[in-house]
């Protein structure tokens, strides 16, 4: 039953993304005020990643808009340094103003900067 709130959250995010082209709105369960920020990263392979971060005291998510594929919801996971997010077959690992976007199934990585 722990997955029910997450499933509802993902469904709400998907519906809001279908209705508008702006950053989707999402209310995280948990405590404390929610912070939302949207950043655009320019990558070495010529693409741009638009990333919307949703954070509160208990939850941290990143919604990464992948060019040509849509948006992927990624959850923050333990990292030795920086902030690491995993979702589906993708990984987004940031530190400071830069990040590495990885397609895990075909072992492709690209470096990105704000």
TrEMBL record:
Limits of the C-type lysozyme inhibitor domain: 41-108
Signal peptide: 1-23
Pfam families linked to this entry: MliC
PROSITE patterns reported for this sequence: PROKAR_LIPOPROTEIN
Annotated keywords: Lipoprotein, Membrane, Palmitate, Signal
Cross-referenced SUPFAM superfamilies: YdhA-like
Name the UniProt record assigns to this protein: Lysozyme inhibitor
Taxonomic lineage: Bacteria, Pseudomonadati, Pseudomonadota, Gammaproteobacteria, Enterobacterales
């Amino acid at each position: 039953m722990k997955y029910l709130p997450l499933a509802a959250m993902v469904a709400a995010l998907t519906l809001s993304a279908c209705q508008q082209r702006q950053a989707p709105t999402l209310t995280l369960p948990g405590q404390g005020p929610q912070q939302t920020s949207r950043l655009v990263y320019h990558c070495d392979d010529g693409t741009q990643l638009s990333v919307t971060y949703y954070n509160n005291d208990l939850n941290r998510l990143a919604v990464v808009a992948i060019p040509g594929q849509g948006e992927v919801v990624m959850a923050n996971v333990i990292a030795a340094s920086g902030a690491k997010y995993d979702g589906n077959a993708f990984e987004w690992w940031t530190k400071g103003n830069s990040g590495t976007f990885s397609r895990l199934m075909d072992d492709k990585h690209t470096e990105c900067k704000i």
